[in-house]
């Protein structure tokens, strides 16, 4: 004979039993005990859309939201399963990044724009930002792309922020406004794997 429990409960004891020659059972009969999930870990910069409990019944859903300026990275919903575990690990709430350039245009989402034209001069977690770098010997530029990861976005090593005077007096000479280098001209840059010819 095989034992199983209704949904939301688990077998405590053996799931199989055998009638012996002396007409007694080989094992004590099992019992069904309700299964619960323990509260999942808290999400920094996020919150749970559910009643806070010390344990959750099978089938219970927990929904997550992130605070302002943060992006949900992972499942928006997790469910308590019949084995007492959650359907997935809780998500992370990733911070937006300040664009670390002020006086040079950058490329975001395929569009060349000034950082101050972007809302709050910030990009969401996971967004790529392409910077313009000046060739050390030639009057041309090439590009290098960096990604925002949880509030951190660094400029590439080749990028130099234009001075206030360069920005105000010679805007047409800014690195983001000069002619693009020929594809082979960017090869001098040591980390060519993260650069593209503009």
TrEMBL record:
GO terms for cellular component: extracellular region. InterPro entries: Compl-Cell_Adhes-Reg, Sushi/SCR/CCP_sf, Sushi_2, Sushi_SCR_CCP_dom. Its main location: secreted. Keywords: Disulfide bond, Glycoprotein, Heparin-binding, Repeat, Secreted, Signal, Sushi. Disulfide bonds join 5-32, 37-80, 66-93. It comes from the Eukaryota. Residues 1-34, 35-95 form the Sushi domain. This is Beta-2-glycoprotein 1. The gene is NTD5.
């Amino acid at each position: 004979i095989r034992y199983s429990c209704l949904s939301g409960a688990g077998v405590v004891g053996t799931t199989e039993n055998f009638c012996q020659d002396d007409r007694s059972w080989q094992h004590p009969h099992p019992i069904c005990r309700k299964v619960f999930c323990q509260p999942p870990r808290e999400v920094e910069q996020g919150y749970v859309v559910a009643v806070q409990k010390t344990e959750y019944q099978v089938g219970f859903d927990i929904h997550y939201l992130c605070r302002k300026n943060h992006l949900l990275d992972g499942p928006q919903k997790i469910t308590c399963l019949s084995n007492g575990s959650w359907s997935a690990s809780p998500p992370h709430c990733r911070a937006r990044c300040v664009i670390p350039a002020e006086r040079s245009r950058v490329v975001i989402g395929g569009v060349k724009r000034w950082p101050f034209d972007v809302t709050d001069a910030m990009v969401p977690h996971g967004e790529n930002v392409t910077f313009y770098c000046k060739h050390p010997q030639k009057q041309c530029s090439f590009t290098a792309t960096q990604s925002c990861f949880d509030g951190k976005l660094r400029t590439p090593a080749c990028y130099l922020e234009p001075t206030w005077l360069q920005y105000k007096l010679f805007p047409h000479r800014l690195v983001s406004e000069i002619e693009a280098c020929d594809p082979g001209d960017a090869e001098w840059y040591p980390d060519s794997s993260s650069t593209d010819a503009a």
